């Protein structure tokens, strides 16, 4: 007896099951996806709406049909929103709303990047007319060409002079001579300081009081010191009195007590020896420089190099004041001032 029961129950004949159609499989798959998504529609923020309002005109400007893109059926949404049956509310998926916006922004960004990459690179340099140019050469080296307007650097070298070995040797010799002269003068001063007076250096100058008197050749007479006017001996006798503090009568030194054996200059060395006054080879200030050609002079000073500054009258028969510098070796004998 045939059963009219439910297929699949015991005792019921097996009823062949027809395979599901393609449309039914798709409906089941969409139902499963709908269950996995949230049933509540996600609200769209104000910033998102503003982004859409900004992006849509830009997308339309580059030729994108936003309306057709949004309304295009997708694999998961075969039915366009305008074709959805009324009365059936389907949940709104946020990802599906944002997807057109992302695509529009991407489409706008790509041309911008291409335009940016295609722009030529420019470098700004003040005074471009005087800018230096660089040229790429082989071997990855760079050569620089400097413009003519660039000011050249001037290297300054300070001038200098070098002292030769001969000059150094001469300096040493002069220093040695000066040292020897000082030592000799000091030795004479120490050994005979009680025998002659020591004076300090005075300024050079003609202080002879009878510079305008007539000479012997002119018919002139003797000075108050007992020597003829404007002769070398009268001038030196005046300086010896001046250094001793006597510039008027009574005089400390006159012909009668200075050179009583004779008034000529050639007699002065013997007169010093007769008096027992000190003499020597070293020059000292205030001494008498005695020359064997009948001439005497006054030692005004001794230089650091050992040379001697002399003051004198009647040099070369001039009967006038004269000064010169000589080496101590040129003076045969120095007559030191009496004590």
From TrEMBL:
Annotated segments matching region Disordered: 1-25
Q: A Pfam family this protein belongs to?
A: CHAP
| Gene3D superfamilies assigned | endopeptidase domain like (from Nostoc punctiforme) (3.90.1720.10)
Q: Residue limits of the Peptidase C51 domain?
A: 207-336
Judging by the UniProt lineage, the source's domain of life is Bacteria
Note the InterPro entries from the entry: CHAP_dom, Papain-like_cys_pep_sf
Please give the name of this protein: CHAP domain-containing protein
What organism does this protein naturally occur in? Cryobacterium breve
């Amino acid at each position: 007896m045939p059963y009219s029961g439910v297929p699949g129950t015991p005792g019921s004949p097996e009823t062949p099951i027809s395979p599901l159609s393609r449309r039914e499989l798709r409906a089941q798959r969409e139902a499963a996806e709908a269950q996995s998504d949230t049933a509540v529609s996600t609200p769209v923020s104000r910033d998102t709406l503003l982004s859409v309002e900004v992006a849509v005109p830009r997308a339309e400007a580059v030729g994108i049909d936003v309306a057709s893109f949004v309304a295009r059926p997708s694999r998961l949404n075969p039915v366009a929103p305008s074709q959805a049956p009324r009365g059936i509310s389907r949940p709104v998926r946020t990802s599906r709303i944002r997807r057109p916006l992302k695509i529009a922004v991407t489409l706008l960004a790509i041309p911008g990047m291409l335009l940016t990459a295609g722009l030529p690179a420019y470098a700004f340099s003040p005074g471009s007319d005087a800018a230096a140019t660089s040229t790429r050469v082989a071997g990855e080296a760079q050569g620089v060409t400097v413009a003519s307007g660039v000011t050249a650097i001037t290297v300054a070298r300070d001038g200098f002079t070098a002292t030769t070995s001969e000059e150094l040797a001469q300096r040493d010799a002069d220093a040695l001579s000066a040292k020897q002269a000082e030592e000799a003068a000091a030795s004479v001063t120490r050994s005979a300081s009680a025998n002659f007076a020591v004076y300090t250096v005075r300024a050079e100058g003609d202080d002879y009081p009878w510079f305008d008197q007539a000479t012997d050749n002119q018919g002139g007479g003797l000075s108050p010191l007992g020597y003829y006017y404007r002769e070398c001996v009268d001038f030196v006798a005046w300086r010896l009195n001046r250094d001793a503090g006597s510039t008027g009568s009574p005089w400390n030194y006159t012909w009668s007590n200075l050179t009583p054996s004779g008034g000529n200059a050639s007699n002065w060395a013997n007169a010093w020896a007769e008096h027992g006054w000190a003499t020597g080879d070293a020059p000292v200030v205030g001494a008498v420089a005695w020359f064997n050609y009948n001439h005497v002079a006054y030692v005004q000073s001794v230089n650091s190099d050992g040379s001697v500054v002399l003051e004198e009258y009647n040099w070369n028969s001039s009967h006038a004041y004269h000064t010169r510098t000589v080496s101590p070796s040129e003076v045969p004998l120095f007559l030191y001032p009496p004590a």
